[in-house]
Structures are given as structure tokens and as C-alpha cells.
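Researcher: Re-running this chain for the archive, since the previous output was lost when a drive failed. Same request as before.
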Amino acid sequence: MSEFYREQIVKKPRKQHRCFLCLKEIEGEHVYISCKHYDFWTARAHISCNEASKKICDKCEERGYCDCDVGECYREYVREEQKVL
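Model: Regenerated C-alpha cells:
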């Protein structure tokens, strides 16, 4: 089974999209992600959300062995951070 992960910056989207990480509407430039790991999937995210999720994953104890939903993990982390503030 071949696996891959690609990110592309979309400069001018043709239609409205929702960020799969924060679930808010995307306005303008964003990241288009395509991946094949078991199944093929695509997603779109704000550039800032995508960068933040990478940092969160890098700090995670389960890194490399995780099967969780990245979006769910990201939202949980953001909720916990807001409680601290």
C-alpha cells in the first residue's frame, strides 16, 4: 500500500471552504491537504491552524503512533489553552 501526504497553498479559492481544524469559514489563502493512509482523504485548513496543529503533534507523546482525528485533537488543545487564559 503506497502512502503519501501533500500540502498545497491555495491562493485564490473558487468557493467557500471550512477549516477542518477550527471549523471556521476560510477566507482567501489556505492549505489544501491530500493524504492516503488506509483511505484517501482531503481537507482544507487555515495556514495558521495547520502550522499550530503541526506544533501540537510534535509535542504529543503519541507522535508517530497516533490514530486520532487531528482536527478533534487540535480543538481539544485549543479548548484547554482557553481555560488557562
